[in-house]
Design brief:
Rossmann fold; 4-stranded parallel β-sheet; about 45% helix; Glutathione S-transferase Yfyf (Class Pi), Chain A, domain 2; 2 domains; 13 helices
Length: about 290
């Protein structure tokens, strides 16, 4: 099983632990994540509001690289997933728009053909590998560990584009947490936005909303698990800027899965996490 791996800017620049954990767990499950030579920014979720054609061209250029590789794309960022999925869908369904974008792409020697799909790693794990196979690979179940799972908005919405899970009552991340032996718990306002996208203009609001959710999770769970770099940064940073931090560990899902698969704590990039998550090790069965 082989995919073109679109890592995304934020993960590459700030969260090397997320990237390395993704690569390690994929390898353990027999998945080959192949680097995309020359790939760049997805274009961001808001660029289309300023210049639709430019936004599509930036996203399409990355998709073209995967087409040339002959591989579907796997992402680890919710925002990148939405941007690439929307562009892929629009350009496949609208021939006139596709030609306009291809005129732009011709300037860099590329052409969008519409031959690949885009999947977030959670979707790939559930749909392509499957919960049963993942469960069979679990070597050290995380029994007794209570997890507050955070999905993030762009993984699920707009639902008519993403076509992934129930946007109001999603289960995929919960199921993937549970297959590790841990328990994904329910908590109030579970689907609330992290407000990371407004960090640049209303940082105080981002930290306040993020902290409120972290403190809610603290009442019900031992750790918080995310599948998006921006959500992760929000929930980690909102604690670090407090005079008295709740110190709720925020963990990338591949890190949690990697531990259950028997990969060492050190190999999964936990050194990159700013809040100590080593308490998880106490839940690992031999």
């Amino acid at each position: 099983m082989k995919y073109a791996f679109f890592v995304g800017c934020t993960t590459l620049a700030r969260l090397w632990g997320y990237e390395i954990a993704t690569r390690k767990t994929a390898e353990k499950l027999g998945v080959d994540l192949v680097d995309m030579p020359g790939s760049g920014c997805c274009g961001t979720t808001y660029l289309e509001t300023l210049d639709h054609i430019t936004a599509l061209a930036i996203a399409a250029r990355n998709i073209c690289i995967a087409e040339e590789m002959g591989l579907d794309i796997v992402t680890v960022c919710n925002g990148c997933t939405e941007v690439l999925t929307k562009a892929n869908k629009e350009l496949k369904e609208d021939p006139e728009l596709r030609e306009k974008v291809n005129e732009v792409l011709a300037e860099v020697g590329r052409r969008f053909e519409g031959t690949v799909e885009v999947k977030h790693i959670l979707r790939m794990l559930k749909e392509d590998i499957g919960l049963d196979k993942i469960g069979e690979a679990v070597a050290r179940p995380l029994k007794g560990l209570r997890v507050g799972a955070h999905y993030g908005c762009h993984l699920l919405k707009p639902s008519d584009v993403m076509m992934f899970d129930d946007p109001e009552v999603p289960t995929t991340l919960d199921e993937l947490v549970n297959v590790t032996g841990a328990e994904s718990i329910q908590y109030p306002n579970k689907l609330e936005c992290c407000t990371g996208p407004i960090m640049g203009v209303r940082e105080d609001v981002t930290w306040a909303v993020g902290l409120e959710k972290v403190e809610t999770v603290e009442k019900y769970a031992d750790i918080m698990v995310t599948s998006c770099p921006f959500c992760y940064l929000t929930y980690e940073r909102c604690q670090l800027v407090q005079e008295s931090s709740p110190d709720v560990p925020v963990v990338h899902y591949p890190q949690l899965l990697g531990l259950a698969l028997g990969i060492s704590y050190e190999e999964l990039g936990f050194d990159n996490n700013k809040i100590d998550a080593s308490a998880i090790l106490g839940f690992m069965e031999e």
